[in-house]
Write a structure and sequence with these properties.
There is one protein chain. This protein is mainly alpha-helical. The protein has a single domain (about 5-25, about 40-165), classed as dinb family like domain (Four Helix Bundle (Hemerythrin (Met), subunit A), Up-down Bundle), CATH 1.20.120. It is built from ten helices and no strands. The protein has helices at about 5-25, 30-35, 45-60, 65-70, 75-80, 80-90, 95-115, 125-130, 145-150, 150-165. Helix 1 (about 5-25) runs parallel beside helix 10 (about 150-165), helix 3 crosses helix 6 (about 80-90) and helix 3 runs parallel beside helix 7.
């Protein structure tokens, strides 16, 4: 069995992947950031989405309702990620680029602080140990998977989507 990463290693991976996302975004001008692709999403929409899920991770780790952090109803949250993503997109679609960028930076600061508060042994705890009242199945997997799934791995997904949307290749 592969050893789980330490909190320091998790934070390093989050920061590394976020640096790549930030570098991609910093190479875009405001017009590119707000130009929608065929699916109607702009690069700014992708950043608001990432930030919303980071806030939900902060809520997860704090034991508070994730749906509230995402800005969706409990019913929408229970309907699954696709329904949540539609509502998150609708909620943030009216924000200015400056508002989105502020939200994106603030959410990241909050998630880094929340993860930094965890001990290495906390990373082995299960989802339900953080969210005992949330319905749904807990696979018993360590929380570190959810942490990386809502940060570093999530950044990678959106890096690719933003690259395709803007025609920016990896450097």
């Amino acid at each position: 069995m592969e050893a789980l990463p330490t909190t320091t290693e998790v934070l390093s991976r989050i920061r590394e992947r976020r640096a790549e996302l930030d570098a991609l975004v910093s190479a875009l001008d405001p017009a590119s950031m707000t130009h929608p692709g065929p699916d109607g999403w702009t690069p700014a929409d992708h950043l608001a989405h990432v930030a919303a899920w980071e806030q939900s991770l902060v809520a997860l780790l704090a034991g508070t309702p994730r749906h509230a952090a995402l800005g969706v109803s409990a019913e929408t949250y229970d309907a699954g990620p696709d329904a949540v993503n539609i509502e998150v997109h609708r909620f943030h679609a009216g924000r200015t680029l400056d508002e989105v960028m502020s939200f994106y930076r603030r959410a990241h600061e909050e998630v880094i602080a929340a993860v930094a508060r965890l001990s290495d042994s906390d990373l082995t705890r299960t989802y339900s140990s953080f969210q005992p009242d949330e319905p749904g199945d807990d696979s018993g997997a360590p929380i570190v998977g959810w942490i990386l799934g809502n940060t570093a791995d999530h950044y990678d997904e959106h890096i690719e989507w933003i690259r395709r949307l803007t025609g920016k290749e990896a450097t």
